[in-house]
Design a protein that fits this description.
This protein has about 170 residues and is mainly alpha-helical. About 85% of the residues lie in helices and about 0% in strands. The chain contains six helices and no strands. It has helices at about 5-35, 40-75, 80-85, 90, 95-125, 130-165. α1 runs antiparallel to α2 (about 40-75). The longest helix has about 35 residues, at about 40-75. The model has no long low-confidence stretch (mean pLDDT about 90).
């Protein structure tokens, strides 16, 4: 493979690290530390600031992942219909199944990210700090974030399978 291919894969992996690493950082370190912050209004402002910064970085990473993911398909010779995407035989191979799993998981992650980042997260940020509605929205947003991180693990497993030939 060419230097361009390896550069593309390196950028893809770094963007994935930023996206998934941000989720894991917030879930394992950021959120537990912030839950102890008092008063609730300060905690909410900190969550909102950290969440907004993470959201912005994540969506840049997602854009890079989409571009480099398509480029990786091109470099592998898979970005055409005949014999690859349009071939039932391709999808029965280990590589085809790993690619399918990765594409489905990424699609679900994108949908969950949209719901979390642009619907529930902002709603929680606008709710009165410490109120019952704010707590409910925050729990729902946290549940979506955890689900997304778990789906991210599925993406990593599929990516490893894909890199190792299925």
């Amino acid at each position: 493979m060419s230097v361009l291919y390896y550069t593309n894969v390196t950028i893809h992996v770094l963007a994935a690290m930023l996206w998934l690493g941000g989720m894991f950082f917030l879930g394992v370190i950021g959120a537990p530390v912030l839950r102890a912050v008092e008063p609730p209004a300060l905690r909410q402002r900190l969550f909102q600031a950290l969440g907004t910064r993470a959201r912005d970085a994540s969506w840049w990473a997602i854009a890079v992942l989409l571009v480099t993911g398509v480029a990786s398909l091109h470099f592998r010779g898979w970005l055409h219909w005949d014999g690859v995407f349009g071939s039932a035989g391709f999808w029965r191979t280990g590589s085809g199944q790993a690619l399918a799993a990765k594409l489905v998981a990424v699609t679900v992650m994108l949908a969950v990210s949209v719901a979390h980042d642009f619907i529930l997260g902002p709603m929680a940020g606008r709710a009165v700090a410490g109120s019952e509605p704010a707590l409910v929205l925050r729990r729902r947003a946290a549940l979506l974030a955890r689900a997304n991180a778990l789906i991210g693990v599925v993406v990593v497993i599929a990516a490893v399978r894909l890199a190792r030939g299925g």
